[in-house]
């Protein structure tokens, strides 16, 4: 089966629409375009496909009601706009899908939520249950609570990780541009890239920034396609029906195949930034990065930043390069007393609770491997 056919026949699919496809330049909901997209998704649901819809647009839809003309630079105002816009957006989806007799469920996620094992399972269970009940989940980042440190920031990668979470067969990214181009499509001479099969197809392509209200531009879309590991089509909302039918529109990103990281590890690698750094000696780098071991206090030579137990932190070698990321078991302030000590010594001197690893290998992802793994 060709990858276009996989999209046409997919039993489970994630569709993501960007802010500019859903809102007007005045910072309000574009009801007509939302209705048109809902009609396409409802038709696919009627064919028996399970769909999860990732919708951006909360911030963009909140601008008009707050009297703002452009995306505010500060996080607090963006969060306020998202709070206003998300409600309006979801109300519109509810009534628009009701025209087709469909019920929708709102799912707001943060990157932080998804890394922690229990939260991650929770989200997975909720999405599965919504699908089992015939409800269309509409996902967005929980913008009002996500701070810069724990913020996912763009919905392209969120959509790719949601596709993992629900084991989707295909992902469709809908933007204001109908495909990936060899350069900024507003400039003359830019040509459509019909297929991306690997990094060599991206050589020489200028991946520019976002449009009027979007986030991430082409960079995050290409990264999402790398993370997804399933066929991904990038096109505009007007071509959604044809893309879902497997027609040769937009850009098709072919999956690379090969071994896959778990969804949680993908989140850790691609959805987080380190809240601090732990410096490792050469033996610890070798153990963690090449032998899949947990990080023990004995191999730690330094600590930077002010993180708390449970936060994601970057693990760096002597040259400062980040080799891995993991969820740390200690607060930053505790680590200097543990550094360079054996776990046996720590257990004897400080008590049995200090026998635990700095980072358990299940909570650790080697970044070079994460890169290799996705394409
Ligand atoms: N090489 C490229 N091919 C296509 N679009 C590009 C390219 N480089 C930059 N862009 C810009 O990326 C924008 C889409 O990204 P973004 O604004 O983040 O969209 P969305 O809101 O749909 O997520 C387009 O408006 C386009 O101008
Ligand atoms: N969560 C944000 C969306 C961020 C985002 O990725 O936007 P976009 O690039 O338009 O998909 C919002 O709803 O405004």
Task: Please describe the topology of this protein.
Layout: H1 3-9, E1 12-17, H2 31-46, E2 50-55, H3 58-63, H4 75-98, E3 104-109, H5 111-115, H6 117-132, E4 136-141, H7 155-165, E5 170-175, E6 195-196, H8 217-228, E7 232-236, H9 240-244, E8 251-253, H10 263-270, E9 277-280, H11 282-290, E10 300-304, E11 312-316, E12 322-327, H12 335-338, H13 343-350, E13 364-366, H14 367-374
Question: How would you portray this structure in words?
Answer:
- It is a single chain.
- The chain is globular.
- It folds into two domains: 3-261, Acetylglutamate kinase-like (Carbamate kinase, 3-Layer(aba) Sandwich); 273-374, PUA domain (Archaeosine Trna-guanine Transglycosylase, Chain: A, domain 4, Roll).
- It has helices at 3-9, 31-46, 58-63, 75-98, 111-115, 117-132, 155-165, 217-228, 240-244, 263-270, 282-290, 335-338, 343-350, 367-374, and strands at 12-17, 50-55, 104-109, 136-141, 170-175, 195-196, 232-236, 251-253, 277-280, 300-304, 312-316, 322-327, 364-366.
- It has 375 residues and is α/β, with parallel strands linked by helices.
- Strands 3-4-2-1-5-7-8-6 form an eight-stranded mixed beta sheet, sandwiched between helices. Strands 10-9-11-12-13 form a five-stranded mixed beta sheet.
- GO terms for molecular function: glutamate 5-kinase activity.
């Amino acid at each position: 089966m060709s990858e276009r056919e996989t999209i046409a026949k997919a039993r489970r699919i994630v569709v993501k629409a960007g802010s500019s496809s859903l809102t007007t330049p005045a910072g309000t909901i574009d009801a007509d375009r939302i209705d048109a997209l809902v009609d396409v998704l409802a038709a696919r649901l009627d064919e028996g496909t399970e769909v999860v819809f990732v919708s951006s647009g909360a911030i963009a839809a909140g601008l008009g009601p707050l009297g703002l003309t452009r995306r505010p630079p500060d996080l607090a105002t963006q969060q306020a706009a998202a709070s206003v816009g998300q409600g309006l957006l979801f109300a519109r989806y509810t009534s628009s899908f009701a025209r087709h007799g469909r019920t929708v469920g709102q799912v707001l996620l943060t990157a932080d939520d998804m890394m922690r094992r229990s939260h991650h399972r929770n989200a997975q269970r909720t999405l599965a249950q919504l699908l089992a009940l015939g409800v269309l989940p509409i996902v967005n980042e929980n913008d009002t609570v996500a701070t810069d440190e724990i913020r996912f920031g763009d919905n392209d990668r969120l959509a790719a990780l949601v596709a993992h979470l629900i084991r989707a067969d295909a992902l469709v990214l809908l933007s204001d541009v109908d495909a990936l181009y060899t350069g900024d499509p507003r400039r003359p001479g830019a040509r459509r890239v019909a297929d991306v099969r690997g990094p060599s197809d991206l050589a020489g392509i200028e991946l520019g920034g976002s449009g009027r209200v979007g986030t991430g531009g082409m960079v995050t879309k290409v990264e999402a396609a790398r993370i997804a590991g399933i066929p991904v089509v990038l096109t505009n909302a007007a071509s959604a029906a044809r893309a879902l039918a497997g027609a040769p529109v937009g850009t098709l990103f072919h999956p690379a195949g090969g071994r896959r990281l778990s969804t949680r590890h993908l989140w850790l690698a691609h959805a987080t930034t380190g809240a601090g750094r732990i410096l490792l000696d050469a033996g610890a780098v070798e153990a963690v990065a090449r032998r899949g071991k947990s990080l023990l206090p004995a191999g730690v030579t330094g600590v930077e930043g002010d993180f708390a137990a449970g936060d994601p932190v970057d693990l760096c070698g002597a040259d400062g390069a980040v080799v891995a990321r993991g969820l740390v078991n200690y607060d930053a302030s505790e680590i200097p007393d543990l550094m360079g000590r054996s776990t046996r010594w720590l257990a004897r001197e400080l008590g049995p609770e200090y026998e635990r690893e700095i980072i358990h290998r299940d909570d650790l992802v080697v970044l070079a491997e994460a890169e290799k793994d996705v394409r």
